[in-house]
Amino acid sequence: MKAIKDSVHDHVPVCDLAADLLDTPEVQRLRHIKQLSTVRLVYPSANHTRFEHSLGVYHLARRALSRFDVDAERARAVRAAALLHDVGHGPYGHQTEGIIERRLGRHHDEVGDLLESGRLADVLESHDLDPAEVADLVAGEGRLGQLVAGELDVDRMDYLVRDAHHTGVPYGTIDHSRLLAALRFRDDRLVLADGNVQTAEGTLVARALMNATVYRHHVSRIAGAMLERAGERLLDSTDLTAEAFARMTDDRLLGALRECDATADAARRLEERDLYKRAVWAKLDAVPDDVVTADRESVRGFEREIADVADLPPESVLVDTPGEPSMPETSTRVVVDGAVRRLADESPLVEGLRAAGRAQWRLGVYAPEERVPEVGAAAERVLGLAG
Known about the structure:
This protein is mostly helical. The chain is 53% helix and 11% strand. It is globular, with a radius of gyration of 22 Å.
């Protein structure tokens, strides 16, 4: 069995199935998609890729499976799903996910089309695996699918530790070995064994702190909003298909943006980190409910109206609303005194973290630096923001 040296997990043993999957173009493409997308404009060392993350998820799935009585064929399918869980991501990962969902009607973990034919299908079938079964596991379906995509999945265990390692922040350093050791199935539901409320709390705190300091940093949010709008304009202005867009790498998308007249300025700004600035950065209690919950079309309407009031072209105003504050990890199931409970019902930390999330929530309105004052004033009028 081969082993690959990893910056987080040291040597990762790689079975023949994984070795064959790693050599496919679909998985190799992930070498050219950065795990943290525009976050690297804030943390310069955050240049790790979805390829190495996928390898880490495979490694943790392999370790988790060793703790359960799973037959060899089913275990191979789960390992394959763990390695392939990100092959559906488009360029810049989550930053273009909304575009792909709207244009193609699929989420990044819906990989049935990618696995039904071609090299990935050939490799899976050569190892006596059903590509459709692997696709279902990627989507988190079934008892073992929870290991790949669920409240206690190995995806989260890897990315928190890996993202903390590469950004240099201490907040995501969860004890994934303890988490793996505590995993149990109760009535086909993945839970943490008795005595692990604090283990679950540690993951919840890590996620909350990483959200505040890394994932939702305002510079990354501004760059992500600029990239998303530029991606939409690229598809509207050229004959590039949504399917081809979804299969791009980061560098190819940036190149395409650079070559299109409608997006060339956005490409330059992203390359040179000459980003828009915050014209509005409003707390939750200052924002009307209909703005907090606004859908994409409403947000685009706000942008056009603000730009009109400020006498700017529509692409010069970006409205960025994160939606209603949420913390899905609080539904993690833990065993307490023999009974399965929701973490939210057992941990006094949960309410505090929810309050912290609401306090950290911000609505952003972004514009070129020289036009920030008039855009800020226009946005306050149009959106009805409280002073």
